[in-house]
């Protein structure tokens, strides 16, 4: 049978921007993710015992969480197969903003020396990939405020080179040390990360919020001068 008539079985039934949330990840990457051993063993619906954030957070903390100065069962680095699998499952579940903030704020809620830097990187990558199209003023402000805060975060992370796809046969895979602010800058300025398209995004210009604030301050100031 021709491939054009085959129905993909792994598309999430949740929708954003009038399409399945899964479609922000290219078909060939989705297929590789769903066929990977890590996804089948840890993130398949039967493995998670339910398609919800409560189950997924356990996997995220187990495999992306770190203790300061040492690892806690950490199997992932940014852009690797396991990271992409977790990112795909996050996309399929489509968590609420409150649930995403719970992941980011987990540092204070787990154990004293828990480091959430990989969890923050996951959420930032997810938001940039999934909500690139969102030009709602309130939502755009939330995204920019979060990214602006994280661009001042200089914690170190292990990562596949951000211009490299870990499944590429033509590129040598190199693991680098990057800083969280470098990830934020890349997400805000580039069109692709780890072989995943980022989509044209209007809210990712972090300077726009500063310019808007300055222009509003100037207009307020001029209004005050005129009233005097």
From TrEMBL:
Residues annotated as region Disordered?
A: 207-228
Main subcellular location of this protein, as a coarse class: nucleus
Localization annotation: Nucleus
User: Which keywords appear in this protein's UniProt record, sorted alphabetically?
Assistant: mRNA processing, mRNA splicing, Nucleus, Spliceosome
Locations of Acidic residues compositional bias?
Answer: 208-228
Gene Ontology process terms (BP) = spliceosome conformational change to release U4 (or U4atac) and U1 (or U11)
In terms of InterPro entries, this protein maps to:
PRP38
Give the CC-aspect GO terms. spliceosomal complex; U4/U6 x U5 tri-snRNP complex
Q: Which family does it belong to?
A: Belongs to the PRP38 family.
Protein's name according to its UniProt entry: Pre-mRNA-splicing factor 38
Source organism per UniProt: Vanderwaltozyma polyspora (strain ATCC 22028 / DSM 70294 / BCRC 21397 / CBS 2163 / NBRC 10782 / NRRL Y-8283 / UCD 57-17)
């Amino acid at each position: 049978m021709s491939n054009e008539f085959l129905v993909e079985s792994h598309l999430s039934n949740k929708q954003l921007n009038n399409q399945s949330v899964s479609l922000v990840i290219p078909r060939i990457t989705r297929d590789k993710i769903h066929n990977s051993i890590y996804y089948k063993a840890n993130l398949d619906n039967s493995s998670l015992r339910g398609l919800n954030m409560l189950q997924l957070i356990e996997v995220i903390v187990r495999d992306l969480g770190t203790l300061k100065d040492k690892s806690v069962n950490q199997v992932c680095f940014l852009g690797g197969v396991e990271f992409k699998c977790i990112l795909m499952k996050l996309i399929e579940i489509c968590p609420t903003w409150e649930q995403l903030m719970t992941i980011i704020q987990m540092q204070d809620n787990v154990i004293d020396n828990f480091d959430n830097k990989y969890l923050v990187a996951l959420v930032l990558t997810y938001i940039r990939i999934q909500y690139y199209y969102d030009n709602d003023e309130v939502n755009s402000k939330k995204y920019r405020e979060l990214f602006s805060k994280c661009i001042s975060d200089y914690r170190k992370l292990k990562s596949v080179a951000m211009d490299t796809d870990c499944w590429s046969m033509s590129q040598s895979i190199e693991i680098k040390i990057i800083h969280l602010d470098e990830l934020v800058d890349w997400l805000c300025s580039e069109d692709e990360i780890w072989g995943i398209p980022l989509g044209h995004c209007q809210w990712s210009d972090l300077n726009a919020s500063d310019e808007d604030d300055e222009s509003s301050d100037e207009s307020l100031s001029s209004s005050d001068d005129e009233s005097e």
